[in-house]
User: Fold these one by one.
Assistant:
Number 1:
Amino acid sequence: MKNALTISIVMIILTFFILILLLTPLLMVLGFFNSSSITDGYILQNSQYADEYKITLNQYIKKEEGYVSLERILYFYQSNNSLTFKEIYEDNLDKESKKMIPISKICKMDKYKELNICSNDELDKSNQIKEYQDKPFAKPINFSSIKSISSFFMEERITFGEKENHNGWDFAAPALTPVYATCDGIATKVSFPFKANTQKIGSNGNEIVIKCDSSNYIVTYAHLYPNSNKIKQGDVVSKGQAIAGVGTTGNSTGNHLHYQVSLNNKLLDGMSLVDFST
Ligand SMILES: [Zn+2]
């Protein structure tokens, strides 16, 4: 009788551990442990890093020094959080080309080479090894004239009580700050029904969509100033051409450009494509 009881208890404990083992990967996928999940160049669970990242980002972007992704910063920060975001940003930026330095090079630096994530095995596993070295786009706005980057790509935020990941970049800037075509292409949508900059109904407000030539990139500019469009639907545009001005029409709380890029219906990190060297 006593033996049967002991066996039952052992069985219950074993079953419990087996269940935990089986459920752990599922819970991790569901984000139960709130570890940051990395997806094609961006980090989905990022609310705890958002403020510090934006402070750092603003320092470098407003001086047009170049872009380093949050994914890249967290790659190092999460394995050694005595490093600061600013320090990692600085280390990962090539001053000449204004591009991110390939991660294999960073991992040769004394500061980083002992980190576990810099072992060859870990580097091979990481999608960080796929660098965004190709920079086909011009700047959508003169970054030195913006007030701040108010929201980054895939930033976790609460909109109307719903948690969402922001599908583009928000650049806060004075009304009518010029907005530029980032590629050669055709304007597939130039929609300016909003006649007052304060008009708030409708999500994207006044909007321009450009389909880039020789690639399937689709670029969206939202919340534009009433009647500020310098082009009409169907127009051919060239890279660097001024197309409209910043506004706050639609679902927007202040003058800013919402800039969004997609390729084959998949959202992309538009800043990773910008050439800062020109
Ligand atoms: Zn936005």
Note: The chain has two domains: 38-129, 143-273.
Number 2:
Amino acid sequence: MSALIQLQHVTKTYPMGEVEVHALRGLDLEVPRGQFVVLLGPSGSGKTTTLNLIGGLDRPTEGAVLVEGEDIAQYSERRLTAYRARKVGFVFQFFNLIPTLTAAENIAFALELTTKDRAVVRQRTEELLALVGLSDRGDHFPSQLSGGEQQRVAIARALANHPAILLADEPTGNLDVETGRQVLQALRELNQKEGVTVVLVTHNTAIAPMADRVVRLHSGVIASDEYNPHPVPAAELNW
Ligand SMILES: Nc1ncnc2c1ncn2[C@@H]1O[C@H](COP(=O)(O)OP(=O)(O)OP(=O)(O)O)[C@@H](O)[C@H]1O
Ligand SMILES: [Mg+2]
């Protein structure tokens, strides 16, 4: 069986007037289903670019982005939109919840993109709130939640439609250590309970020990790729 995600000789070049920015210079990366990968690297090393390519938010300049064996870089805009809605969940540094919807409504909104069945929406929303430990916060608006709680709602929303892949870009970048640990713990639990493959981007090296695998990017190429035989529980991380 081929890996869930396969980046093959991927480059990404942004034209900037007279010059070109080489964000990715030839990336080869295979991620098997179920893996929890941390993508580390300094600012500008190409982390977000890589996530955007896997998530179908952008296309490579050269190379292939295979997901379940299909090159999503060749998809039409329409297929790419369907791919993003069904296969991928996104979590960002600044939660991006809809402020006028409650926690439960933010999650339900994502579900309604793929189903009109009210009972399914209600049941899955409750299940997701329970999975991130927020069953008693469903009626709260984002402004009535702590930062860590907002991020856990964002994670629940990202997982609404059982995506194969969860992409998280600096999900703890805006949180204190204790809250950050809770968010990482929620991500790890969902990786284990729902089997979702996680690619987590950060420049925070202290997060690396919780991952199954740590890939370091430097100037648009992979500088190292290491497996953790014994990942550390998120609760034990410190930074
Ligand atoms: N839309 C764009 N147009 C031009 N250059 C871009 C664009 N997006 C990213 N770049 C450049 O590509 C390089 C990689 O950017 P990227 O956002 O992937 O870095 P990053 O590793 O996520 O950094 P950070 O940790 O600061 O978020 C940087 O040099 C950046 O300036
Ligand atoms: Mg970035």
Note: The helical segments are 47-54, 77-87, 103-111, 118-131, 147-158, 177-193.
